[in-house]
Amino acid sequence: MARVLANKRVVVGVTGGIAAYKTVELVRRLIQGGAIVDVVMTEAATAFVGSLTFQAITRRPVQVTTVGVWEGEQAGHVTLGAAADVMIIAPATADALAKLAHGLADDAVTLTALACPAPLIVAPAMDQYMYLHPATQENLERLRRRGVTVIGPHRGPLASGMVGEGRMAEPEELFGAVRAVLGRAGPLAGCRVVVTAGPTREAIDPVRFLSNHSSGKMGYALAEVARDRGAGTTLISGPTCLPAPFGVRFVAVESAAEMAAAVEEAISDADVLVMCAAVADFRPRQVSAEKIKKRTASLLLELEPTPDILASVARPGLLKVGFAAETERLLEHGHEKLVQKGIDLLVINDARRTMGAETARVTLLRRGREPEGLPDLPKEEVAERIWDAIQELLAERERVAQG
Ligand code: CTP
After folding, report:
1. Whose CA is nearest to atom 9 of ligand 1?
2. Distance from Cα 323 to the centre of ligand 1, integer Å
3. Helix (H) / strand (E) containing 207
4. Where are the annotated coiled coils located (predicted)?
5. Which of 19-33, 169-183, 337-351 has the lowest mean pLDDT?
6. Is 220 left (phi over 0), alpha (psi -120 to 50) or beta?
7. What would the mean pLDDT of 109-121 be, rounded to a whole number?
8. Is the pLDDT of residue 140 over 70?
9. How far is CA 284 from CA 175, 195, 343, in A?
10. Which of 45, 87, 99, 367 has the fewest CB atoms within 10 Å around its CB?
11. 67: number of Cβ within 10 Å
12. For 293-309, what is each residue's pLDDT tens digit?
C-alpha cells in the first residue's frame, strides 16, 4: 500500500505494442498500491493482451470501443477522463503519440486522453527507427512542452531482434512515475531531503570486504515516500539489490568514507537528513593492495573506527533523523544516541529481527516526548509514519520561527 495511491483513480491506456504484456504487471502493482484502476485499450492492443486479463485484475470493465459504453456501472470516456487523478499510456506507440500530439481521438485511448484534464504520462515503445524518426521526436517534444511526462524508452533488445532505443520502461519505473506525478504538489513540495540506505563495504583486499546484512529496503521506502510527498529527494545508497527509485537523485557509494563525502555534498542545501544506512563502524586499518593468500597460518585484521557521519553533520537548520539498530536495552541506548549525535528524531529497531525483513517494529524517540512504539508494520508503512513524524517536527519548527 502506498498512501499517495490510496483511492486515487488511475486510467491506464494500452495501445498496440508487444510491451503491452508488461502493462499487466503495472496495473497489478497499482491495484496492490491501493489505486482504483480503469483500463482503456485500442483494438490493436487486444491482439497482444486480451481485455479480459485487465478486467480480471482490475475487476472493472475495460473500454475498447469509442461508442456504446453508457450502460449500468460502465463509464464513458468523458466520465472516465474527468474523474481521473492521473492517466498513463503504456505502451504508447508512435501512432498513439502522433494522435496525442495533434489532438486526434479516433480510438478509446486517445479519446479518453483528450477528455482527461489530469496529468498525462506516456511510456513510448517502438522500433528504434520509428522512435528516432523526426516526426516521432517532434511529437514527443510537443507533448513534453504541453506538460506530458515522457518515461523512456530505454536501450535494449527490441521486438524486431535489433538492439537499440525503443524499449518500454519497466513496470517498476512506471509505477514510481505514477506515484511521483500524483505526489508532486504534496505536503513536502519545496522541501529538499537526503536519505541514506543500505550497508557499506569496507575493503580488506581487492576481492574481500567487511559489511552487514542491511538490504536497503527501509531507506529506499523512505526515499520513495519523500518523493511521493513532493520532496526533492536524494538517495545515497551502499550496495543493494534494489533498483534506483524513479524521480529520485541517486548516488551509489561503497565505503563509509564515500558515503560521508556524498552526504556532506548533498546536505549543503537540504532541509532534512535521514541517516538510515547501516554504516560500518570499523574498517581495516590497512587495505592490502594484493589478494591476501591463505598460506598465512592465521590472519589478524586490525580495525579502525569509520567517521560517524550523523554525529559530525552540524549544519544549522538541518533536521536530523537517525536510526538505532540495537540488539539489547533498546530505549536506553537510543536515548544516549539522541543526545550524543544531536538527533531530532531517532528510529529505534531491534536489529536482529528488522535487518533484511519485510516488516519492522520501531519506536520513535524525540527529545522531551514519550517514546512512541509502533506496531509491526510493512516497511513502506513504517516509512509513511516516519515522514508523518518528520512533517510534524518541521511544522513545529515553522511555528517557533514565526514566533
Ligand atoms: N551512523 C553514521 N556513521 C557511522 C555509524 C552510524 O552516521 N559511522 C548513523 C547510522 O546511519 C544511524 C545512527 O548513526 O542513523 C546510529 O547507528 P548505529 O549503528 O545504531 O549506532 P552507532 O552510533 O554506530 O553505535 P553502536 O554501534 O555502538 O550501537
Report:
1. 310
2. 7
3. none
4. none
5. 337-351
6. alpha
7. 96
8. yes
9. 41, 26, 28
10. 367
11. 9
12. 887 778 899 999 999 99
Residue 402: pLDDT band with limits 50, 70, 90: confident
Question: Which atom of ligand 1 approaches the CA of 310 most closely?
Answer: 7
**Residue 341, annotated as binding a ligand:** yes
Q: Is the CB of 258 under 6 A from ligand 1?
A: no
Report which residue type is found at 396: E
Q: Is 246 in the pocket of ligand 1 (CB under 6 A)?
A: no
281 is in an annotated binding site: yes
Q: Is the CB of 195 under 6 A from ligand 1?
A: no
In tens, the pLDDT along 189-205 reads 999 999 999 999 999 99
- Residue 72, exposed/middle/buried by CB under 10 A (0-12, 13-18, 19+)? exposed
Q: Which domains does the chain have, with CATH numbers?
A: 3-182 (3.40.50.1950), 192-285+300-401 (3.40.50.10300)
Active-site residues, by number, are 212
Here the cell at position 360 is 519492522
196 CA: nearest ligand 1 atom = 11
Tell me the CA end-to-end span of the chain in Å, nearest whole number: 38
**Which residue did the predictor score with more confidence, 70 or 80?**
80
Looking only at the bridges linking them, the beta strands covering 272-275 and 249-252 are unpaired
Distance from Cα 211 to the centre of ligand 1, integer Å: 14
What confidence score (pLDDT) does residue 71 get?
47
Ligand 1 touching residue 386 (CB < 6 A): no
Which burial class, exposed, middle or buried, applies to 161 when counting CB atoms under 10 A from its CB (0-12, 13-18, 19+)?
A: exposed
* Region label for 34, one of left (φ > 0), alpha (ψ between -120 and 50) or beta (otherwise): left
How many angstroms separate the CA atoms of 78 and 84, rounded?
Answer: 10
Among 259, 323, 365, which is best to mutate for testing ligand 1, by the most ligand atoms less than 8 A from CB? 323
C-alpha 218: how far from chain center: 12
pLDDT given at position 210: 97
| Residue burial 290-308, b: 16+ Cβ < 10 Å; e: rest | eeeeeeeeeeeeeeeebee
Q: How far apart are CA 327 and CA 78, in angstroms?
A: 57
